[in-house]
Amino acid sequence: MAERNFQIGIVQMSCTPEPEQNLERAIAHIRDVAAKGAEVVCLPELFQTQYFCQREDIALFDLAESIPGPTTARLGDLARELKITIVASLFERRAPGVYHNTAAVLSADGKLAGIYRKMHIPDDPLYYEKYYFTPGDLGFKAFETGVGKIGTLVCWDQWYPEAARLTALQGANVLFYPTAIGWHPDEKAQYGEAQYDAWKTMQRAHAIANGVYVAVPNRVGFETGNIRGKVAPGKGLEFWGGSFIADPFGQLVAQASHDKEEVLIAEVDLQRIEEVRRNWPFWRDRRVDAYGPITQRFLV
Hints:
Layout: E1 6-12, H1 19-35, E2 40-42, H2 70-82, E3 85-95, E4 98-106, E5 112-117, E6 142-145, E7 148-152, H3 161-168, E8 174-176, E9 182-183, H4 188-210, E10 213-216, E11 220-223, E12 237-240, E13 244-246, E14 252-255, E15 262-268, H5 270-279
Parallel strand pairs: 1-2, 2-3, 7-8, 8-10
Antiparallel strand pairs: 1-15, 3-4, 4-5, 6-7, 9-12, 10-13, 11-12, 13-14
Helix pairs in contact: 1-2
């Protein structure tokens, strides 16, 4: 199918302690943004639960499920009904003892078009992801949809220009970054504005450097990591929302608030991509012959 302009939608949502309730609310948001014209819709990272990585708890591995599995089946049925593509971030149980933070892409015919396993895994206070997730082993991927190619990376991947570049080089017209990022209560007053600005700036830079659209759905609201009646130690996290869509020159075409659920929609304009890449020919001027050392951990 020839590529064409298409509408993308992202969902900014808060998450309750009840996985089934979160799934139903996500489905309602998908219906909402699809009714507004979105043909590809992306949910936030690990949307089915409160952010469980605020603590290390072996029992929480029970939250994971196989892919394909019950959630991809539900979302696949929805994708087929609405004739859209859905990107859903899930806690994948690959095998006993092997779990991933995985983005599943459900195509408009309801089938699983493919998966991307998060490559960069953080380990910070209240973001103890290395305890739960094995690093991805599928590489960086672009997926064919009925409207053209898309790429999906996941949260911590958004800080790495190599990930954006390698995904864009496979022909993705838009990079989706399902995200769960927020402020530590003790840090917000001093660092909060700068942290949010750095996060947004970094991803706008990916749009500019690669001449692609970038779409970033974050969760919103205060969470204590309440899972099955047990909360994480500490003061919790305030997920800062602020979801956005940027065009191929990093200009914001849609942006959400910091304090409520919202859906955003924007057009992926192929002529805009062409125009930006002609006028700012970063890809033309890349010195691919000189980049071999980038695969080394450190050069001194």
